[in-house]
UniProtKB/TrEMBL annotation:
Highest taxon listed in the record's lineage: Bacteria
Bilayer-spanning residue ranges: 31-50, 57-75, 87-107, 114-131, 151-173, 185-208, 220-240, 252-272
Family classification: Belongs to the 4-toluene sulfonate uptake permease (TSUP) (TC 2.A.102) family.
Major localization class: membrane
Places the protein is found: Cell membrane; Membrane
Species whose genome carries this gene: Pseudorhizobium endolithicum
Name used for this protein in its record: Probable membrane transporter protein
Length: 273
């Protein structure tokens, strides 16, 4: 392992990523995973973690950090009365089911495949947010129970494969059916809770006994990174929620879209290189 003097810049980078992740968790209901996963991928690489397990470790560790962040962000949004609790209750089974399926797939997929999934979904959603039009609607209200259950399962699968809290996908789903972006953001924080808890368990199970994981890891969860970043993300999530309610719908969409493009391009670059 490199000496501490060489690791210090990366510890600082992790701390900065945690601060940004906490703000984004509150602002966009995304749990911060879209920030943490690429940062973890590179930091774990510097620490000598083999590429074969590096992406899985990044995804699992991100979901572990999202657990308390999403809970606190959800509580902050619920106090404002903006959460669609009926939708969350209907997804209590669907979303965790999809997340556990994702952990199973991730344990068997290659690092490059997981990075490609992350980048493609992020880029598609970014363009949808940036070029969004009021006429882009699939309906005036959310679909009925069977279709809604399928959507929840799909959100769990894709979010589990990206190591995110589900806000990226839930925001798109709800706004396509005419729900206000602020309600979508608030509800997404609750979706993050439904994803991160089973996701943590799934990535622990999927990585048990795997060779090449760094110290302080249980399966695909590195508890040293979790311990470092959780206090930072927790302290800043409520501030992010305040910023979300102070911004306009269009400002949220454009800011979120630009952020996703940058993350997507960064991962495409790692695949090509």
């Amino acid at each position: 392992m490199p000496p501490f003097s060489e690791l210090l810049p990366f510890v600082v980078a992790l701390a900065a990523a945690g601060a940004l992740a906490g703000l984004l968790a509150g602002m966009f209901g995304i749990g911060g995973g879209a920030v943490l996963v690429p940062i973890f991928f590179h930091v774990f690489g510097i620490l000598g973690v083999p590429e074969e397990v590096r992406m899985q470790l990044s995804l699992g560790t991100s979901l572990a950090i999202i657990v308390p962040t999403s809970i606190r962000s959800f509580m902050a949004h619920r106090k404002r009365g903006a959460v669609d609790t009926a939708l969350l209750k209907g997804w209590i089974i669907a979303v965790p089911l999809g997340t556990l399926a994702a952990a199973y797939v991730a344990a068997r997929a290659s690092s490059a495949e997981l990075r490609a999934i992350f980048a493609i979904i992020a880029l598609a959603l970014a363009f949808r947010m940036i070029f969004n039009r009021a006429s882009w609607r699939l309906g005036t209200d959310l679909p009925g129970r069977p279709a809604r259950f399928a959507v929840g399962t799909g959100i769990g699968i894709l979010s589990g494969l990206m190591g995110i809290g589900g806000g990226v996908l839930n925001n798109t789903f709800m706004t396509l059916y005419g729900r206000p972006i602020h309600q979508a953001v608030a509800t997404s924080s609750g979706v993050g809770v439904l994803i991160s808890l089973p996701g943590l368990a799934g990535y622990v199970w999927g990585g048990l006994g795997v060779y090449g994981l760094p110290p302080f890891s249980t399966g695909y969860i590195n508890w040293l990174a979790v311990a470092l970043l959780i206090p930072i993300t927790l302290s800043l999530a409520p501030l992010g929620a305040q910023l979300a309610h102070a911004m306009s719908k269009r400002q949220l969409e454009i800011g979120f879209g630009i952020f996703l493009i940058l993350v997507s391009l960064q991962f495409f670059a790692t695949i090509i290189v």
